[in-house]
Amino acid sequence: MAQQTGPDEPRPIEPENVRQLTITATAEERRISGPIPPPDILAEYERVVPGAADRILTMAEGQQKHRHQLENKVTDHNIDRTNRGQKLTFVLSLVVFIGAVIIAVFGNPAWAFSIMLADLLALLVVNLKSKNEQRRELQEKRERLAKVVQKPEP
């Protein structure tokens, strides 16, 4: 028999009114790499918003163009910086060499030889450090590329 309750109190559930309720939830996850979605998703965008596929492709092309422009700027800057460094190194080495010749002419060839030798060693060290840095950067790029190539698709 059911209990009497007031208007603000919840009523108890009688056993004969209880039914089994089963809820099933399904989740789907898709990972998209890159600016352009897969064709099925692109087609769905086009179906929902006519012209959306063209807009998405145009956006991706614009992003790629922008990225290439930035990469070109960085590359040009690095080349300019390298050229400036080489010119400055040449000028400084030339000044040191002329100074060493002047010192040798005025009667101190041992000092002149020491200065020229130090100059040449400094140039050698800078050159070797630069080559090692280039090799290290190239190796890092190869390792990153190898990781990307080896990464399995989810």
Summing up helix and strand content along with how strands pair, one would put the structural category as: mainly alpha
Provide the helix percentage.
Answer: 55-70%
Quickly count the helices: 3
Instruction: Report the oligomer.
Output: single chain
**Radius of gyration, CA atoms, in whole angstroms:** 37 Å
- Please give the number of β-strands: 0
Major pleated sheet:
none
| Total domain count | 1
Low-confidence stretches: none
The average pLDDT score comes to: 85
Global outline: elongated
Strand content: under 5%
How far apart are the first and last residues' alpha carbons, in Å? 58 Å
Element string (H = helix, E = strand): HHH
Report on the structure:
With 154 residues, the chain is mainly α. Helix content is 69%, strand content 0%. It has three helices and no strands. It has helices at 39-48, 52-105, 109-150. The radius of gyration is 37 Å and the shape is elongated. The model has no long low-confidence stretch (mean pLDDT 85).
Task: From the structure above, extract its key features.
single chain, 154 residues, mainly alpha, 3 helices
